[in-house]
Amino acid sequence: MTPLIDMAMLLIVFFVLVSQIGATDLVPMKLPKPSPSAASSPGREPRCVVNALSDGSGRVRAWRFAGAEHAPDAAGLAALGEAITQALRAQPSVEVHLRADADLRYADIAPAIEMVGRAATRANPGTPARLRVAVQPEPRS
Question: pTM for the whole thing?
Answer without folding.
Answer: 0.64
